[in-house]
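Q: I have two molecules that I believe assemble together. Could you output structure tokens for the complex as a whole instead of separate predictions?
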Amino acid sequence: MSTMYILWLRQVKKYFRTPSRIIGSLGQPLLFLLVFGFGFGSIFKQAGQGDYMQFLAPGIIMMSVLFTAVFSGIDLIWDRQFGFLKETMVAPVPRWQIMLGKTLGGATVASFQGVIVFILSLIVGFKVQNFLMLPVAAVFVFLIALLFTSLGIAIASRLEDMQGFQLIMNFLVMPIFFLSGSLFPLQGLPKALEVITRLDPLTYGIDGVRESLVGAGTFGMGIDLLVVIVIAVILLGIGSYLFEKIQA
Amino acid sequence: MNMSQQDGNIISVAGLTKKFKDFVAVDNISFNVKKGEIFAFLGPNGAGKSTTIQMLTTLLKPTGGKVTINGNDPAKNKDAVRKSFGIVFQDPSLDSDLTALENMQYHAVLYKVPKEVREKRTEELLRFVELWDRKNDMVKTFSGGMKRRLEVARGLLHHPKIMFLDEPTLGLDPQTRNHIWSYLKDISEKENMTVFFTTHYMAEAEKVAERIAIIDHGKIVAIGSLAELESKTKTNSLEEAFIAITGSTIREEQVNGTGRMRAMQRLWGRR
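A: Yes, here they are, computed for all two components at once.
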């Protein structure tokens, strides 16, 4: 327990110590909220879909959770390049505890980032229907954070350096975001796109948050929760397995 | 109690071998290190020093041979072995975004040092390496010498029985080198701690080591006290003895830390 705690603490401390990075990473979600939110707002309304901001905000909140989570996992590469990982690897503690502590730390940080973007979205006009459902939304946020931090760690365990980073951003993280129904409704899509969106775990996270904050989901809370939990557990398993294999 | 502890050897290595595909990095080496001894492990670049240290410290699985560290096999009883040693790696291994104290705390928690002991020992060691005044400063503001001293202090935190140091004084000025060695010798005497180190500074090995092993092309080519090595090679200094034994050709230069890490990754990262 104490091992996991100290790894969690390290991750959280390092996040709060670089406020410039926190503020910097708010730029993109804010831009998306303002530009898409107000830019597409009228078309969305004309198409009879209601208030676009209400639709968009959960997607953008989860986008920032996704990005922060993947980065927190991937920063394992820095630990490796700067040698700190070795110190951890010769310590007499099971590796799964190290991995889990680091993942929980990354997930905490990513969830916090989601909370900040949630507050920002309230400022630009997002309205929560039922504040009593906030804890439910928080569960989805944390699960998605956990899921994608594990994915980041799994990837980082196999990467030698930051060279492959751009590749992951362009071919994995961005597609996960764009194909998740974060920006457009999941109904009435071309068949191929419909299938792909349903394979994207973020889709279910966003759907769950949408369901809980604005009462407008597609799959229903039960399915959303089940899919997210199952995939999170699988990725946590894969992440620990690959982390175990690292030769420091 | 097994044999190695009865005969006073805290490290015993017999027939240790490591192959990377066709390349034999460490070739059937055998040696013992006594409890409390300061032991220098020398050799030209690429001779197999770091590979040997990695095998002794559980980071690398040997291809063959038997290793016993404080009564345990590093390939089998990893955690028991890990508890028994402290290590200063060739490359820096501190978290530079944490303070000196936080780096110490992180180590203490991972090694399960009880809280009361942790606080006392941390203060003692940080004072000892003259970093107590800087304990709340981020490690990234430290000079190379300060980082090294902190790494030494951190390695000593959990009262290790053996301290491994892989070129601990590389790139440090003579003042810092002397300081580091005076701490290590002091603790080694006080706590009967064994010191196993590699270095390229012959004068350093000459000054501090009680016994010296020289490894070349993966094989141990000489082992003994300074006087023994000198008389065997009919030379007057370790440097001359070293060159007499290993020859005077220049070895292929090793790449820097990250590059080496990448090279190692290519060699055995994919398993």
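A: One point stands out. The domain at 3-268 of chain B is CATH 3.40.50.300 (Rossmann fold).
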